[in-house]
Amino acid sequence: MNRIIPLQSAPAGCDSVAELNVLKERGQREVFCGLTGIIWLHRKIQDAFFLVVGSRTCAHLVQSAAGVMIFAEPRFATAIIDDHDLAGLADANEELDRVVNQLLTRRPDIKMLFLVGSCPSEVIKLDLSRAAERLSKAYTPRVRILNYSGSGIETTFTQGEDACLAALAKEIPQARAEHAAQDDVDLLVVGCLADVVEDQFSRLFTELGLSSFAFFPPRRSGDLPKVGPNTRYLLVQPFLTDTARVLEELGAKRIAAPFPLGVEGTEGWLAAAANTFGVPAERFEKVIAPKRQRAMLALDRQRQILNGRSIFFFPDSQLEIPLARFLHRELGMTLTEVGMPYIHRQHLAQEIALLPKDTVLSEGQDVEKQLDRCRVARPDMVVCGLGLANPLEAEGITTKWSIELVFTPIQGFDQAADLAELFARPLVRKTKLAA
User: Fold this and answer.
1) Is residue 10 predicted with pLDDT exceeding 90?
2) How big is the CA angle at 432 (ends 332 and 405), to the nearest 5 degrees?
3) What is the pLDDT of residues 392-410, one digit of tens each?
4) Which runs of E-coded beta strand occur in 118-199?
5) What is the tens place of the pLDDT at every residue in 239-255?
6) 235 conformational bin, left if phi > 0, alpha if psi -120 to 50, beta if neither
7) N or C: which end of the chain has fewer CB within 10 A?
8) What is the DSSP letter of 68?
């Protein structure tokens, strides 16, 4: 067996997911909607276009959240639904057909078009799944047209990626049974990664002796890997529940692993893959050791700032538990409360096993009650969405925007210090302002 983090016997950690005492809350939530995922998805799938079908409010959200793209022609837009559409005074399907035709005429480079619903079909009075099916028939094979919901009524903001990838996963070609052995990709890495991180992991897998691996989503929409019963997949994000379900329907099996955040998480993630495919322990250690050592040394400066500080997580990005594990175990932070919109017990089992047994976990949200607990705790830092950050800052509480943790490359050994610095920077700024 390879050297791997002892997940089942983590010191002072939870012995099992079943023993967790999770505070479940149902009430008012403070989260971004799933449309936000378009901002990193359109950078990843380089020949795809995202057409949001929604209101002017949705258009303003996407434009403001993606303001960094003003110097380039972005691959997303909004088909505005006005009052006359909602009142049934116009044929919404005809309007959508006209916009799609204009778009594809203007942008012949588009190979995949996602129709993204900003609200449930009952609200926008348009069945986007049927519209996507109808339009796809009209434009195939030039353009493949899919749909998913980015509605904030139904999702938190990172679930937009999950909904998109689940729709794309349904397009993955299944290898025929007689050719499954040679056609199935052995290892599928699932979740949006910055290109630089994907390249780093590619080099690591190659050094470990793995040759049959692919990343999903691919950079080009036509490069979908073949998936079948020989495929094992690794999640890079804990919020890809629907995508995982589709892959398992195709026959793929999940490799249980922590998530590749920080040194410990990245090593455990890689070791899970190495163990699955029989990489010799000596080879694994030879490949990983220098990268592990360099990453641990890089964390020293941020550890001096963060060690002993307390942190409180509001539920937002679905990254909260892996981040809490990293900040506590590698940087010495005290976990006051760790909230997640939804805790997937299986996908997070290895992460939860590494948390202190007395960790306060909350699932869902009743924002007023959680704000009260946060004010009583007075943590050194709060991780939350933009809607809560400014009010908390006004009360003298240091905050970190959770959305920044999704926009920034944070996975892997080489990014461990960058991830730690995202948390150290607000505390350093506060110290300088107080001086």
Assistant:
1) no
2) 50
3) 999 999 999 998 898 899 9
4) 144-149, 187-190
5) 999 999 999 999 999 99
6) beta
7) C
8) G
Q: Which of 155, 237, 162 shows the shortest CA–CA distance to 194? A: 237
Other CB atoms within 10 Å distance of the CB of residue 336: 21
DSSP-assigned beta bridge partners for residue 232:
187, 253
SS3 letters for 305-326? HHCCCEEEECCCCCCHHHHHHH
- Looking at residue 3, its amino acid is R
Residue in the block written with tokens 């590619």 = 202
Residue 253 C-beta-side C-alpha neighbours within 13 Å = 6
Amino acid letter, residue 425: R
pLDDT band at 57 (very low <50, low <70, confident <90, very high): confident
* Dist CA 337 CA 370 (whole Å): 9
User: Tell me, what's the pLDDT at 118?
Assistant: 80
Q: Which of 304, 337, 307, 306 is nearest to 320 (CA)?
A: 337
Q: Give dist(CA 312, CA 367) in Å, integer.
A: 13
Dist CA 226 CA 188 (whole Å): 10
Distance CA 414, CA 5 (A): 19
**Which pTM does this prediction carry?**
0.90
E strand or H helix at 371: helix 367-377
Give the pair of three-digit tokens for residue 230. Answer: 């020989």
Q: What are 278-312's pLDDT values in tens digits?
A: 999 999 999 999 999 999 999 999 999 999 999 99
In contact, 150 and 163? CB cutoff 8 Å: yes
Name the token pair of 169: 């996963």
Other C-beta atoms within 10 Å of 35: how many?
27
Question: What span, in angstroms and rounded, lies between the C-alpha atoms of 273 and 423?
Answer: 29
Residue 416's closest CA among 297, 309, 321? 297
CB 55 within 8 A of CB 80: yes
Instruction: Enter the tokens of residue 357.
Output: 């047994």
